[in-house]
Backbone:
């Protein structure tokens, strides 16, 4: 079952409960976005989706999510998006890379670019949820 | 008789003839001494290099011609020879010695010239760039490939200081300032350590491997610089890395979705026994396939890693200090490090050795489910090598399993190991790294329940070095 796609004007509405947090999932693979959305279902995490780096930046700009989960390889590139999120949008500590790439050197490169947590696909629900909660709770450095 | 001073050797020769004639006629001691003194003067006047036997030959012929009367020519000739033997042999011996020494000198000289030409030809014919400098840093030899790689004329390179190599490279190495600075520093210091530095140059794009090695003399040492263009090798490695990375992503991506959605099915169909069973099989098989892909990628990475071992002379204590700082805390399995007094340096890549140690310590802890100390020791020997040992008080290993321990994908099977996960690759990775250092790695255990010791050796100096 495919969840209904949300549009900009819909999710721009303020969230109902104070405790809700918003997570942006940026991945060009719709199935990965579906999976993360399903894994976050029933928790305090609301999921926004973006299919590429450009779309992700737009959503961050206008909807200010609390945390971002993103893919390494997608149109626009994962690492440039990380740098923009951490540099321009002050999301340091709130960016999680969810990638198929298992090479430790790539992990290191992602860390250097500003990724707070690096997870390998497929995401384990509990591990992902814990990482997202930690990212949401991260207080920005003044 | 007092010999008159004579400015010409011809006069001396005449008088030598006379003295010889007098001796032949009388065989008296005084005639002998006169001739002896004249002979010395002839030698002196010619700077010690006159062939006295030729002068004597002339004198003998003259005496023979002058001989008249009853005495036979044979007697005269015998006397003349006696004279030469008795009176002049010291001179002739000295001269012969001098001639032989001279001859030997000429031979040695030509051998040296030959060797020198041969060495120059070898340096010139090496495909890689080679620069040799003396203890003061002045370049004593540089071949054409070195000049080409540095983009400078060979004669300019030969007349300069070896540190100018770093200056020439600095212009073409944007972003590599630190590496160039290290190179400059090492060239200036001309230290006895071998070192390899790799630089990515522009204009034209080149991967350059710079190898520094000491050129040892009796009391002082110079430095040698080997410049190797490794662009093609690095391009191949980059292409392979790219391919491996793409394959990893292309296989892992869809597989991740299979596993993820199988898990989702499991979550959503709790209570439906048949659906749960089927989804579990899909998820488990997916994970098995994923771990096989990951293992394959691990092996690829290690084979790449073996090519990138950068060895240098490094303190053992430095590596062990780093081990202590990077090893995670484990109160039940504390780590203790001990270095023997006679252990100082090894010739190794400290990062790789640390990787091996981390792997061994992690194993030691993993197979000590009931806790226990893990000790790392470093001792001198066997031979000039250093032996590092990781000792635990854990499950131990059955004697039969020990020889297979370092093979790929091998894992010891026993009930007490159930639930301890691993890929069966760790120790084979360690062995690859240690063998790339010309070292050896082996395990010892007194049997199940009695702990394990893993030993590995590292050379203290470059086995292929000039030392």
Residues:
């Amino acid at each position: 079952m495919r969840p209904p796609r949300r549009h900009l004007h819909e999710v721009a509405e303020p969230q109902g409960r104070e405790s809700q947090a918003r997570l942006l999932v940026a991945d060009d693979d719709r199935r990965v976005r579906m999976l993360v959305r399903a894994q976050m279902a029933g928790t305090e995490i609301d999921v926004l989706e973006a299919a590429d780096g450009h779309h992700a930046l737009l959503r961050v700009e206008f909807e200010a999510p609390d945390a971002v989960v993103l893919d390494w390889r997608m149109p626009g590139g994962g690492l440039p998006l990380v740098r923009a999120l951490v540099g321009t949008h002050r999301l340091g500590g709130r960016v999680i890379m969810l990638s198929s790439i298992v090479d430790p050197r790539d992990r290191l490169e992602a860390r250097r670019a500003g990724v707070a947590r690096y997870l390998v696909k497929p995401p384990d629900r509990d591990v992902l949820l814990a990482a997202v909660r930690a990212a949401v709770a991260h207080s920005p450095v003044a | 008789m007092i010999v008159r001073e004579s400015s010409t050797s011809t006069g001396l020769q005449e008088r030598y003839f006379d003295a010889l004639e007098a001796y032949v006629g009388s065989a008296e001691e005084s005639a002998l001494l006169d001739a002896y003194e004249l002979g010395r003067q002839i030698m002196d006047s010619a700077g010690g290099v006159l062939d006295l036997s030729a002068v004597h030959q002339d004198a003998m012929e003259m005496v023979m011609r002058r001989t008249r009367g009853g005495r036979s020519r044979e007697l005269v000739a015998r006397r003349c020879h006696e004279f030469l033997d008795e009176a002049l042999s010291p001179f002739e011996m000295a001269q012969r010695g001098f001639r032989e020494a001279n001859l030997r000198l000429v031979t040695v000289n030509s051998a040296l010239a030959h060797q020198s030409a041969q060495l120059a030809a070898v340096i010139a014919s090496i495909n890689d760039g080679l620069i040799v400098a003396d203890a003061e840093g002045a370049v004593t030899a540089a071949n054409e490939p070195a000049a080409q790689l540095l983009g400078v004329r060979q004669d300019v390179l030969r007349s300069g200081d070896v540190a100018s190599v770093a200056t020439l490279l600095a212009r073409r190495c944007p972003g590599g300032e630190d590496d160039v600075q290290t190179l400059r520093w090492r060239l200036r210091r001309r230290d006895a350590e071998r070192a390899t530095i790799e630089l990515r140059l522009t204009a034209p794009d080149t991967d350059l491997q710079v190898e520094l090695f000491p050129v040892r003399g009796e009391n002082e040492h110079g430095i040698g610089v080997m410049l190797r263009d490794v662009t093609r090798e690095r391009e191949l490695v980059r292409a392979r890395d790219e391919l491996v990375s793409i394959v990893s992503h292309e296989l892992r991506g869809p597989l991740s979705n299979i596993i993820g959605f199988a898990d989702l099915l499991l979550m959503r169909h709790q209570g439906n026994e048949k659906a749960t069973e089927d989804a579990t099989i899909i998820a488990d098989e997916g994970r098995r396939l994923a771990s096989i892909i990951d293992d394959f990628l691990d092996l690829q990475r290690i084979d790449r890693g073996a090519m990138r071992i950068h060895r240098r002379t490094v303190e053992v204590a430095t590596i062990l200090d780093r081990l202590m700082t990077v090893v995670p805390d484990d109160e039940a399995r504390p780590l203790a490090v001990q270095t023997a007094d006679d252990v100082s340096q090894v010739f190794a890549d400290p990062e790789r050795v640390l990787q091996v140690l981390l792997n061994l310590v992690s194993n030691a802890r993993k197979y000590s489910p009931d806790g226990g100390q893990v000790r790392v020791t470093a001792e001198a020997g066997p031979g000039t090598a250093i032996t590092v040992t990781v000792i635990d008080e854990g499950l131990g290993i059955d004697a039969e399993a020990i020889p297979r321990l370092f093979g790929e994908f091998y894992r010891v099977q026993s009930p007490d190991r159930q639930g301890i996960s691993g890929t069966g690759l760790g120790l084979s990775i360690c062995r690859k790294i240690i063998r790339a250092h010309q070292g050896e790695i082996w395990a010892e255990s007194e049997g199940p329940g009695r702990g394990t010791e893993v030993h590995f050796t590292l050379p203290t100096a470059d086995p292929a070095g000039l030392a």
Observations:
- Strands of chain A lie at 21-26, 45-50, 67-70, 95-99, 117-120.
